[in-house]
Amino acid sequence: MKILIIGAGGREHAIGKKLVDSPLVEAVYCAPGNPGMKKDGIQPVAIADTDHEALILFAREKCISWTFVGPEIPLLNGIVDDFVAADLKIFGPTKRAALIEGSKSFAKQLMRECQIPTAESQTFDDYEMAIAYIREKGAPIVVKADGLAAGKGVVVAMTIGEAIQAAKDMLKSHRFGESGNQIVVEEFLAGEEFSLLAFVRGTEVYPMVISQDHKRAYDLDKGPNTGGMGAYSPVPQISQGMVDEAIEMILKPAAQGMVEQGRSFTGILYAGLIATVDGPKVIEFNARFGDPETQVVLPRLVNDFAQVIDDLLGNRSIELEWSQDEFHVGVVVAAEGYPATYETEMMLPDFSDEPHVQVYYAGVAEKEGRLVGNGGRVYLVEAKAETLEQAQKLIYEVLERKDTTKTFYRHDIGNKALEAVEGKVLSKR
Ligand code: AMP
Ligand code: GLY
C-alpha cells in the first residue's frame, strides 16, 4: 500500500510512523508534513492541506491506496467529500459529519437529542442575553467560542467578571473572528479529564484505550490553555467502569445520532470527558485523532494500523488489541512564548543517540541540514516503560541532557496518576 497523510504535526508523525512500521505499507507521504518526519521514513510533500485539487492529483499520480486526514480544518473544508467525488479512498468524516467538532452548539444539540451526558449549557449570539445568563448561573462557569479556535477558545471563568469579559472578547471584540460570533456558556464540571477516542463507521464504534492530555501551558495546570502540552496512557485513576459507561452512554449514542441525522460519521471520534461523581460527561467532541493523545495511544495498538484502516474502508469487521502492560508518556516541547507569540528558528537538539525515547516532530523547519523551531508546539518526546515513573524518568533525563534553549516543557506530565490515592480513585462505578 502507498498512503498519503494530510497534516503536519506530531499527531501526523505518529500516524505515519505506525503506518511505516506495517509490512503492508510500501510508502508513506505526508502533505504538507514536516522535515522531522523524514527520520522515520515519512516523505513530506509540499502541498498545502487546503489545496484539495493538488492533493487529488498527487494521490492519482502516486497511485495512493488511501488517504488519512489528521487535522480538523481540511475535514471541515470537505476534503473527504472532494476525494470521494474524485473516486479516491480516504479515511475521515465528511464535512457534514465533521460538524460535531466544527460547531459546539451543533454538538450540544446532538447531545440533548441523544440524551448524552454533558454540561448544562445555552448558546448565545447576543451579548446582553449571555451576561444575564452568566449572572443567573454564577461562577465558576465556562465560556466557549462556538467554532474552531485551536483549543484556545475556551475560558474556564472562576468569577462572574472573568466570564463576562470572555463573552465580551468573543461577541463584541471578535477575538476569535467568526468562530466567536456565537458562544456556548456552560456549567463548570468538576472532576478529572480524560480523552476517549474510537474508530467509527456509521453506527459501529471500536473504542481505543484512554489517555489524559494536559491543556494548560505550565506545571500544576497553571497558565493559559494550549493545544495540549503532554499526555499519557493508560490513565489508571479512571476506572474501566467509567470508560465502559462512556462507550455505552456517549460514543455509541453519538454515532447512532449522527446516522439518524443524515450525518453518518466515519473516522476517528474523539470525546473529551470529565469523570464527574455522576459518571462521565462530555466537554467536547472532535472529529479526528487528538494531539498529543495520538502519540501515546497509537503506540499501544497491537494490530497492524494499516490493516485496521484498510478493513474499515473495505467494510470488513475489525477487532482491536491494545498493549496492557506498559505506560506511555509524551512531553511536548514548545517554543518560548507559546501559546502567544513565540520564538522560532532555534536550533533543536539531536535525539538520534537516544534509543529509549521516540521523538515526534511538529513545528519544525530545516536550515542548513539541521532542524530548527518553526511553530508553537515544536516536538514531543515519548517513552514507554513498565511503570509511569520509569517512562517519565526516561523522558526527563533525556530532556535535561539536551540543549532546550528558547523552548519550554512541563515537568509534571502524568503526575495526576501518581497522585491519585486510594479513596480518591474513581474506581467504584
Ligand atoms: P475544550 O477546548 O473544550 O477541550 O476546553 C479546554 C479545556 O477547558 C478543557 O480541557 C477543560 O480543562 C476545560 N473545560 C472545558 N469545558 C469545561 C467544563 N464544562 N467544565 C470544566 N472544565 C472545562
Ligand atoms: N489534545 C486536544 C486535541 O487534540 O483537541
TrEMBL record:
Its cofactor is Mg(2+); Mn(2+). One of its GO terms (molecular function) is phosphoribosylamine-glycine ligase activity. Pfam families: GARS_A (PF01071), GARS_C (PF02843), GARS_N (PF02844). Pathway: Purine metabolism; IMP biosynthesis via de novo pathway; N(1)-(5-phospho-D-ribosyl)glycinamide from 5-phospho-alpha-D-ribose 1-diphosphate: step 2/2. SUPFAM superfamilies: Glutathione synthetase ATP-binding domain-like (SSF56059), PreATP-grasp domain (SSF52440), Rudiment single hybrid motif (SSF51246). Gene3D superfamilies: 3.40.50.20, ATP-grasp fold, A domain (3.30.1490.20), ATP-grasp fold, B domain (3.30.470.20), Phosphoribosylglycinamide synthetase, C-terminal domain (3.90.600.10). Belongs to the GARS family. HAMAP family: GARS. This is Phosphoribosylamine--glycine ligase.
